[in-house]
Amino acid sequence: MAEFSTWNAGGETISIRKDLRAPMRDGVELALDVYHGTEDKPRPALVALSPYGKELQALALTMPPQRRPSPMWDGCIEAGDIARIVREDYAHVIGDLRGSGDSGGEHIGNYNAGGVSLGQDAYDFIEWVAEQPWCDGNVGMVGISYFGSMQVLAAAERPPHLKAIFVSGGHYDFYETTYHGGVMWFMPRAAREGRGGDSGWAFTDRTKSRMLERYSPEELKKLVAERLRDPDVAAWPNLVHTLNYPKHHEAWFDIVMNELDGEWYEERNPITLAPNIDIPVYLQIDQGRGWTMDGTIELFDALKGPKKLDIGSYPPMQSRPFIEEHEKMFRWYDYWIKGIENGVMDEPAVSVFVEGSRKQVTGSAWPPKPVDYRPLYLRPRRKLSPEPEPMGTEYAAPDGFYQAPLTVTDKVEILSWSTDAFEQDTELMGSGAAHIFAEIDQPDTNFILRLWDSAPNGTRQLITTGYLKASHRELDADRTTEGNPYHPHTRAVPVEPGVVEEYVIRLYPFAATFRPGHRLVVELSNDEPLADEHNALLPPDAFHLPVGRPVTHKIYRDAAHPSRLVLPFTTGEASQG
């Protein structure tokens, strides 16, 4: 039963329509709440859709924004600043996706609900909103992360009344959201189950696993047994539990069971759908979580209509409740929805905050400046140098480390190499690569690289990261270019122990200026520390599956094995064409 009430927020009264029902084309109804001003008139609407529960989003009216590492930070309160949206004279519409919260229907799998794509539901939802007396027929969307991905899925369906979208912090290629370089990331578990700083999806007993729907019990038993042969998976208690009791962890079970890229992930990949989008799109992302930057840039390049790309500053996690970027969002929607000439389209298409110099660089494409990919070679005595090592292996003996599994140790072994102190400002902007010649004594390991800006006073800031599961080392030769490796992740090829292999690791996009006296430091490990300057800013579950077996690593960096970073040094001014 729909309810109407009011709420006083900072002296302003907000009208609230609770528990409305929007019918989908198959008869399922989605639940929604609407917030708008008290004046009885139609307004443009900003729609927020997710499985996180509309009641949770209402905390934006009563909870001051929290930043990590606050223990009150909750990653699922992402629908936006209700009071601010109402004050700008938009109707804020917050809906529960199919199979979640108070909505009907079943949710099966990722970005797919009961055989109905979430984009199709978003189309029906938006068109229903546009017909309501409190809406003037013009619709945009709002919200970050899952809410952001829903914007792209909706726009790809081309609902007639959706005029523009503004996406901040979205996740796109779902394989890259769940496996970084083939290494499993635990944050999707937090999103589903409500662990480590997330309330989780507001799902009911109408949530189902696509794997359980697709395979017979006998087939599934064999597939689960095969997955448990991975020692990384078998050593992690939560994964053992998930695989043995999948009905308790439906979505997480599906992710764990699909460790390779392919049809399961591509079916609803927002980047694959991007060429269908013809409305104006503003994409915003902050530095510090490289895979989201990578996906945002890939989506930007795939879009055909009016578009903007805004890359913001570190740190990587926005407030919860989400309140950032609203000024930019309202300028975008005031222009495209309200028709206000505010000059937003007279500005360059790409804007990038550069760490270090703390300057804003603008241009017409990413990266906004021309770059020259140059190597920095790993050298003896943990040095990084523009010059390659002249000596052979017998003289430039390999570096190495032995990593015991985290079942028996708390220590993560880390190798590092450093440049000399920079003598002048040195700007880098783009993606990068690490070519690591390594020998391991097991069929698999992880390679985790992290690049830091180290200041003379000892403080440091993360610049970018790279991940690669050794068995996923295959490259797509047609898509790989200098400084931009591409791994298909469609099969795992075990490593032959004792053989030196070249591993090319993608370094996620970044923009940084190293100031005089600062050094560039690269760290290499096969697990990651759970607490340091960067990880302390992330939710507790935002780390990667550790290696479950003991591994000895030898890192060769001699004349025959030129281990190196390949980095994007800027060479000129930004193009504003």
Automatic annotation (TrEMBL):
Keywords: Hydrolase. Residues 330-566 form the Xaa-Pro dipeptidyl-peptidase C-terminal domain. One of its GO terms (molecular function) is dipeptidyl-peptidase activity. InterPro entries: AB_hydrolase_fold, CocE/Ser_esterase, Galactose-bd-like_sf, Xaa-Pro-like_dom, Xaa-Pro_dipept_C, Xaa-Pro_dipeptidyl-ppase/CocE. Signal peptide: none annotated. This is CocE/NonD family hydrolase.
